[in-house]
Amino acid sequence: MTYQLTAPLLDACVLGIVRSEDSYGYTLTQKVRQVVDISESTLYPVLRRLQKVNYLRTYDAPYQGRNRRYYAITDEGRNMLEFYENEWNEYKDKIDGLIKGTGLVPSEGVMEEKD
Q1: Do 10 and 31 meet the contact criterion of CB atoms below 8 Å apart?
Q2: Which Pfam family, any one of them, does this sequence belong to (predicted)?
Q3: By residue range, what is the domain housing residue 15?
Q4: Cα–Cα distance measured from residue 95 to residue 30, given in angstroms and rounded to the nearest whole number
Q5: How many C-alpha atoms does 97 have within 13 Å on its Cβ side?
Q6: How many domains is the chain partitioned into structurally?
Q7: pLDDT at position 102
Q8: What does the pLDDT look like over 8-47, one tens digit per residue?
Q9: Largest alpha-carbon pair distance within the chain?
């Protein structure tokens, strides 16, 4: 994709995935990669940061004789995700308006060029 994924947008993506179901790092990476080119080495610092600010919690569960670390969203994470969703919708609507030329408000005091 042409557009860059900023840190808050990546946070929102991760929180949205984990809201749907608890996930471990590899599956989170795979789900984000369906939309954006991202490496596991990029995602794990995001997961640690989201955990540090109490938006995610972790727990271990056995899988084929080993433990997997799962990430689950917290109430604070749900609140932040709701904030991100509202911000995203407002931003997306404004960008859509600019791209389509329908969201432009005429500038005051700007004179149009005449031929």
Answers
A1: no
A2: PadR
A3: 8-100
A4: 28
A5: 10
A6: 1
A7: 84
A8: 999 999 999 999 999 998 999 999 999 888 887 889 999 9
A9: 77
Q: Is there a domain that residue 78 lies in? A: yes
* Exposure of 49 in the CB half-sphere (CA atoms within 13 A): 12
Given a cut of 60, whether residue 115 has pLDDT beyond it is: no
Report the C-alpha gap between 18 and 77 in whole angstroms.
10
Angstrom distance (rounded) from CA 113 to CA 115: 7
| CATH number, residue 85 | 1.10.10.10
Tokens 């991202």 belong to residue: 38
Question: Is residue 106 assigned to a domain?
Answer: no
> In this structure, which amino acid lies at residue 27?
T
Does 69 map to a domain?
A: yes
Q: What pTM was estimated for this model as a whole?
A: 0.81
Mean pLDDT confidence for 91-99: 91
